[in-house]
Amino acid sequence: MAISEHIPIKADTDVLAARQKGRALGLQAGFASIDITLLATAISELARNILLYAREGEIELRLLHEGGRRGVMVVASDQGPGIADIERALQDGFSTSGGLGLGLPGVKRLMDSFEIRSLPGQGTVVTAVKWELR
Amino acid sequence: MDVPVLKQGPYLIATVQSALTDADLAQLRRTLVEQVGRYRSRGLIVDVTAVDVLDSFACRTLRDIAHMTGFRGAETVIVGIHADLAFAMVQLGLSLEGVATALDLEEGLAYLNRKQRAAKAAAPGLRPPAGKSPTRDRRGH
Ligand SMILES: Nc1ncnc2c1ncn2[C@@H]1O[C@H](COP(=O)(O)OP(=O)(O)OP(=O)(O)O)[C@@H](O)[C@H]1O
Ligand SMILES: [Mg+2]
Question: Disulfide: which of A18, B50, B86, B94 matches A59 by Cβ 3.0-4.6 Å?
């Protein structure tokens, strides 16, 4: 059975909870400590974006098995305002909130795969996977 | 989550003991900026050895702390960024631009002491010597 967890993101303490669960799952997936830190950092950025831009949403964490390799999938979803220009949002330094604008492009670099779907007025779903090193 | 702040001679040492929420980080920033003024500190060490993740917001807050306390006459050193964290920060594209860092507490203190000596040599008497209050360590380090 696939292990999957849904963590509601509504408050800043939920960001820490999601990070901790991510760590635990990374450990289960046999990740090296460095990869666990990269995964936890990515989760932190995505959860914070949910809070900041959509106010609430959820992070789903799923343990993957594929061809004998383990990984952790992170799905961050919300029904907030969505992103009008995704390409710009993925550029280093682009921020509509006075932030560093490094969250989304950073997550892309921290994880092995990255996909974002967003529609203005409907919400945003970011899916990213990190695989066990072998 | 409260971050204990220790006064050691002319310096303050803040030891972050676990993961901090955004609200905790904002609180830490307020506390440190205030305490640097209250104790007329010349230096501030923020020890992040126990921190599991330094994401963009945490990094920005650390930078703010360093710059804000800088305006109040204290030099800030961030110590204890372990290797995994350093790697993650680089991947994220984060930098601690203009903020001093040191490997650990000891190195951080050594750095501040060097800075203090250099500042005294360059401008003796620019600031009154630390040690107005009887609790303050007069020997220096
Ligand atoms: N879940 C979301 N819903 C709506 N807009 C979003 C969402 N996530 C990101 N964005 C938009 O994309 C921009 C870039 O996001 P990114 O996380 O890269 O940077 P930031 O949040 O502005 O700053 P940082 O993450 O560095 O503190 C944001 O400023 C925001 O406009
Ligand atoms: Mg962000």
Answer: A18
CB within 8 Å: A37 and B55? no
**pLDDT tens across A12-32, in order?**
999 999 999 999 999 999 999
Chain B residues closer than 8 Å to A15 by CB: 21-22
**Whole-number pLDDT of residue B44:** 97
Residue pair B47/B6 in contact (Cβ under 8 Å)? The answer is no
Which positions ≥6 away from B141 have C-beta within 8 Å?
B9, B109, B113
C-beta atoms surrounding B42 within 10 Å: 20
- May I ask the CATH class of domain B5-140? alpha beta
Residues of chain A neighbouring B84 (CB-CB closer than 8 A): 33-34, 36-38
Our mutation pick for probing the ligand 1 site, out of A9, A46, A52, counting the most ligand atoms within 8 A of Cβ, is A52
Nearest-CA residue for ligand 1 atom 1 is A50
Q: Residue A33: closest CA among chain B residues belongs to which residue?
A: B84
* ipTM of the prediction: 0.90
DSSP calls for A43-69: HHHHHHHIIIIIS-EEEEEEEEEETTE
How would you write A89-107 as a 3-class SS string? HCCCCCCCCCCCCCHHHHH
Yes or no, beta carbons of B21 and A106 under 8 Å apart: no
B30's enclosing H/E stretch is helix B22-38
**pTM for this one?**
0.91
For chain B, give every domain's residue range.
Answer: 5-140
Return the closest-CA partner of residue B63 out of B35, B88, B100.
Answer: B100
Q: What is the distance, to the nearest Å, from the Cα of residue B6 to the centroid of all Cα atoms in its chain?
A: 11
